[in-house]
Amino acid sequence: MSHDQTLHLLQDSLNAIRQDQLAVAAFCQTWRAQNALLSALPPRYGEVMEDMLGRLEAGSLFTEESCSFSQVDLLTNLDVWLDQAQQALAKAG
After folding, report:
1. Which residues contact 45 (CB under 8 A, 6 or more apart)?
2. Burial class for 50, CB neighbours closer than 10 Å (0-12, 13-18, 19+)
3. Residue-wise pLDDT tens digits, 37-87
């Protein structure tokens, strides 16, 4: 799978979780499985992604009101992560 296809897959998963068509666990599994993409990016990308996914998983254990992690904010941050990853790959390529 090309990096463009992988980025598209991750964007599709963001859309699906926002529409309640994908569970948090499946979403995180999809993101974590993209080893080729992560290895093509600087190591910091993997660290930041894992931090956000961990918060998303922790937040899914509680109701929105009782958790300090906003799912909406985390998904927005993952959108930014995708944009920055795409830019980093374009510069490297």
Report:
1. 38, 81, 84, 85, 88
2. middle
3. 999 999 999 999 999 999 999 888 775 555 566 888 999 999 999 999 999
pTM of the model: 0.88
Residue 73 in tokens: 């904010």
**Helix H or strand E encompassing 8:** helix 3-18
CA 80 to chain CA centroid, Å, is 9
Beta strands in 17-88 (DSSP E): none
- Name the residue type at position 90: A
Report the pLDDT value the prediction gives residue 58, as an integer from 0 to 100: 87
Q: How far apart are the first and last CA of the chain?
A: 16
